[in-house]
Amino acid sequence: MARPLKILAGIVGAFVLLFLIAAIALSLFFDPNDFREKISEAVYDETGRELVIEGDISLSIFPWLAVDVGKTTMSDSRAFGGDAFMSFESASFAVELL
């Protein structure tokens, strides 16, 4: 009975170690601020409205996978006067991991 428990503990330990290595690599090599222009272009392509992200974009992994966005403004359609459709100082989007 002890041998199957050791194997199971080894498998669980390997998954935890793999997750930690992936989290460290993600934080070292991935900068979400590099995607500001791509995000703005995608929003413009889909909605025809301009999205300006002035604040920082940050990514966190633990305890939830989350994206924090700083000051952001989305323009309104020109048919409605062109003022800001939406603006916020900060926002957080998170997905809870099991």
What is the radius of gyration?
20 Å
Strand content: 25-35%
Q: Please bin the fraction of helical residues.
A: 40-55%
Low-confidence stretches: none
User: Which class best fits the helix and strand makeup?
Assistant: alpha+beta
How many E strands?
6
Give the assembly state of these chains.
single chain
Strand order of the largest sheet: 1-4-5
- Please summarize the sheet with the most strands: 3 strands, antiparallel
- What average pLDDT do the residues reach? 88
- Measure the end-to-end span: 28 Å
Summarize the structure in short.
With 98 residues, the protein is an alpha+beta fold.
Question: Secondary-structure map with pairings?
Answer:
Elements: H1 2-29, H2 36-47, E1 51-53, E2 57-60, E3 64-69, E4 72-75, E5 84-88, E6 91-96
Antiparallel strand pairs: 1-4, 2-3, 3-6, 4-5
Describe the structure.
- With 98 residues, this protein is an alpha+beta fold.
- 41% of the residues lie in helices and 29% in strands.
- The protein is built from two helices and six strands; from the N terminus they run H-H-E-E-E-E-E-E.
- The chain has a three-stranded antiparallel beta sheet. Strands 2-3-6 form a three-stranded antiparallel beta sheet, with no helix packed on it.
- Strand 4 (72-75) and strand 5 form a beta hairpin.
- The mean pLDDT is 88.
